[in-house]
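User: Please run a holo structure prediction.
Assistant: Happy to. Please share the sequence and the ligand.
User: Here you go; the ligand is zinc ion.
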Amino acid sequence: MRIAVLSDIHSNLTALDAVLAAAGSVDAIWHLGDVVGYGPDPDGVVERLRGLGAIGVRGNHDAAAVGALDTEWFNPDARRAIEWTRERMRPETHAWLEALPEIVAEPPFVLVHGSLRDPVWEYVTQSTVARASLDLLPSFGVLHGLFGHTHLPSAFCDDVAQVSVTRPADGSRIGLDERRMLLNPGSVGQPRDGIPESAFLLLDTEAGEATWRRVGYDIAQVQARMRSVALPERLAARLAYGL
Ligand code: ZN
């Protein structure tokens, strides 16, 4: 099976469509949450994912958009974008977001937004934090965890005595071997590793391999649409810097 793993799409349909075109023919699309928030296309992104039969999990922005998480936990720009989303999204978009589970097991993988011990909120940015989630993988009957939330392409592998950390670039591959590992595709709609191109991950279960990819999209067009609907300027500006 070839599976495209997409995270933190953040209501950016232009980026999502560029990623889907670059991924080519796949057998499944999995998403790791934060489908909405920040960007201008909550209905368009959810409609696209629904149409493709994507499966996935709830992120903190998705939870806040449906009223399941208090927006006081978010910075002012993020909060404004969540409120904007809440007021405008269609009922069917709301219903689809509301139905997203916090954890999905698709052996030999498990999908979460944040971490295995705190699926919606915890940021896995360092090996000491990754350790707790790596230790929880067997309780889901799997070796490999897929997570998002940090917007940083990354891999945390359990290498006997230590957790090794890598920051994969476009084309980086990792063998899905017997080691426990946590893989983050990076963000489709708002990358934060200093590279503005959308990031995603392709899984090839027959070859036993995961490959990180980057693809450009029309950032200026998305920024123009954000400005035309008065989403916070800082959220539009940062797309050009990938930060
Ligand atoms: Zn996010």
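The mean pLDDT is 96.
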